[in-house]
Amino acid sequence: MKAIGINTADRIATGLVEGHRLVGPLRVYEEPPEAEPLFTTPLAGIAERIAREVEAVAGGSKIDVLGIGFPGIIRNGFIEESPNLRQLKGANVREALSGALEKLGFKVPVQVYNDADAIAAGLAATRGYLDRLIRVWTIGFGIGFGIYPWHEGIWEGGHIVVSLDPRERYCGCGGRGHLEGIMGNRAMRLRFLDMEPDEIFDNAHKGDPRCVEFVKLWHSALAAATANSIHLAGPGKFFVTGFNAKHLDVNLLQQYMHEMVKMSPLQDYVFEVVPGGNEMAVIGAAVNALRAISPA
Ligand SMILES: [Zn+2]
After folding, report:
1. In 32, 118, 144, 166, which residue has its Cα 20 to 30 A from 177's Cα atom?
2. Predicted confidence (pLDDT) per residue in 99-138, tens digit
3. Ligand 1 centre and the CA of 152: distance in Å?
4. Cis omega (within 30 of 0) on the bond before 209?
5. Contact 135, 120 (CB under 8 A)
6. How many Cβ atoms sit within 10 Å of the Cβ of residue 289?
7. Could you tell me the distance, in angstroms and rounded to a whole number, from the CA of residue 180 to the centre of ligand 1?
8. DSSP character for 55?
9. How far is the CA of 175 from the centre of ligand 1 (A)?
């Protein structure tokens, strides 16, 4: 079975996937300078662009299914909410993409996923965890939460409430006390108007009290969100990825976890910081799509 996986977090990345592995190179769409940027392009334009990428990657071979990851709340092929691609709110991506593909002669089922769920599936497939529950935190501009095996739900883990302090109002969604409002890159820039996120962590290492306090908050917020997930779905493997995952001190995170998770059947949890990126998301979108058409 052959699938094409696509991720659209910032640029369109497309790959051919067979047996949980990428066949050939990942194709990343480089926007020509005169082109309209993706985040302002209407749905039909995005669908056409993606269909042309699929055509190029397929290279004439028969494709069984196509899986695509988008940031936001995705249900039944619809984007119910997408903070980065606001023009796509309410869009039926499955229908638009199927239509654009048919015009190019492809009749193939299209499955749409949240991009963090795609990364979770990619990590499960490439690291031998296809038989169990795994979760992933993506720590970048925003905070994503992915879960494998895919199941119906919202899973907006980045917006878990981890603080009741009314001053915690930096989340991009406008909600108070959210994980992303503490850990997200955008939120950190809003909180420290005089420092970039990397400088905050550097200054904490140098002992700047304000930065030291913040770095504790940053870790305890992730511990709180993870502890909440453990109290709902049980312990297990948690991957952490994204460009700000480099700032994670797993020992400090574990200290907070010990304070927050006390019931002994729930203490079997493990964190692992891993590279994620487009490749994992592309493989994962394809793996999820293959499982959707032929459940194991
Ligand atoms: Zn939020």
Report:
1. 118
2. 999 999 999 999 999 999 999 999 999 999 999 999 999 9
3. 20
4. no
5. yes
6. 29
7. 6
8. H
9. 5
